[in-house]
């Protein structure tokens, strides 16, 4: 049994998350599929890492002064991470979020002391988009810094410097593939760059939900979206600064139905309550595993990100009425 060492600060609880071998996905892929348990971070998501690196960068550059405020537009998880880290450092937080996100995220942000500003969902080209609104609020607020998670490459540095080395060490240098979806692009780009620095032969795959444009971009060179998805926090229609130069070798497109099937199975068979982004990631990992097997790699091992806890979606993914209203399959126990 490995005993986790004591931590001298709550900030030090971010990262060093466990890896778990996923039995059902491994059987489906014909090789080992591992999940990086990012729901084990203090804010219960992978976004805690970006939050910490962004805040540290703002402090070290002098942009964020004592008593200052961090402002961000987010689907929720980055805001939660920023609120926790800001509390630990003594800063205020203002979070702008689309009103379509889960009630649990809104309630969590308010409970953490963040000032929450809700705006209608809008395309990025609309000035009312949550990202643009957050930038304007930061400009209008004295002593405020805009986190700018989509184009602030402190985001992807978090994964180059922490997530990728952790995965490499935990897998004892035996890893053949990595995949996850992109929201800001920080995780897929950062982990990809970090792992490629250890071993260039590791295949990095983008797993894209319907409604996003990156699958088309990385397979045909054109930003083109098809379909829709209810997944929160993933799916992108542009090449952000964090995505620029991402070492993507291949890409998969995964439907909400496929992702939900893995959410269902991982809970019913392995006791993991996860969000839809995790289910989509796992579906992509199975596809990548099958690809590597077909290419003749001997006993390939694939890692993906288990992004956040399912407890953040009790009013949506785990609610019969909500699933029925979206025309999605309902878990049998609901």
Automatic annotation (TrEMBL):
> What are the alphabetically sorted keywords of the record?
Pyridoxal phosphate
Q: Which PROSITE patterns match?
A: CYS_SYNTHASE (PS00901)
**SUPFAM superfamilies noted in UniProt:** Tryptophan synthase beta subunit-like PLP-dependent enzymes
Any Pfam family: PALP
Which InterPro entries does the entry mention? Answer: Cys_Synth/Cystath_Beta-Synth (IPR050214), P-phosphate_BS (IPR001216), TrpB-like_PALP (IPR001926), TrpB-like_PALP_sf (IPR036052)
Domain (Tryptophan synthase beta chain-like PALP) ranges: 13-308
Question: What are the names of the required cofactors?
Answer: pyridoxal 5'-phosphate
* PANTHER family found in the cross-reference section: CYSTATHIONINE BETA-SYNTHASE (PTHR10314)
- What's the protein here called? Cysteine synthase A
Q: What is the organism of origin for this protein?
A: Novosphingobium ovatum
The upper taxonomy is: Bacteria, Pseudomonadati, Pseudomonadota, Alphaproteobacteria, Sphingomonadales
């Amino acid at each position: 049994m490995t005993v986790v060492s004591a931590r001298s600060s709550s900030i030090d609880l971010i990262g060093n998350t466990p890896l778990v071998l996923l039995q059902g996905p491994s059987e489906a892929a014909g090789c080992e599929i591992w999940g990086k348990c990012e729901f084990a971070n203090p804010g219960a998501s992978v976004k805690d890492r970006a939050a910490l690196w962004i805040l540290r960068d703002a402090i070290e550059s002098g942009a964020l002064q004592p008593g200052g405020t961090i402002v961000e537009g987010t689907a929720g998880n980055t805001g939660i991470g920023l609120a926790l880290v800001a509390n630990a450092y003594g800063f205020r937080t203002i979070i702008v979020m689309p009103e379509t996100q889960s009630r649990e995220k809104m309630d969590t942000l308010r409970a953490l002391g963040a000032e929450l500003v809700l705006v209608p969902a809008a395309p990025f080209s609309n000035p009312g988009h949550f990202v643009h609104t957050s930038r304007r609020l930061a400009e209008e607020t004295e002593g405020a810094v805009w986190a700018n998670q989509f184009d602030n490459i402190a985001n992807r540095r978090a994964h180059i410097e922490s997530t990728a080395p952790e995965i490499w060490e935990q897998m004892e240098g035996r890893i053949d593939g990595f995949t996850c979806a992109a929201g800001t692009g920080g995780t897929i780009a950062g982990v990809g760059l970090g792992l490629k620095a250890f071993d260039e032969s590791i295949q990095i795959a983008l797993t894209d939900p319907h409604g996003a444009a990156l699958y088309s971009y990385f397979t045909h060179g054109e930003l083109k979206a098809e379909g829709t998805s209810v997944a929160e926090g993933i799916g992108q229609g542009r090449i952000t600064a964090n995505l620029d130069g991402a070492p993507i070798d291949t890409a998969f497109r995964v439907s909400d139905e496929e992702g939900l099937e893995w959410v269902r199975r991982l809970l019913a068979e392995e006791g993991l309550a996860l969000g839809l982004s995790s289910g989509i990631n796992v579906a992509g990992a199975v596809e990548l595993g099958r690809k590597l097997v077909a290419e003749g790699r001997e006993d390939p091992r694939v890692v993906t990100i288990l992004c956040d806890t399912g407890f953040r979606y009790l009013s949506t993914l785990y609610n019969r009425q909500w699933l029925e209203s979206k025309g999605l399959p309902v878990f049998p126990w609901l």
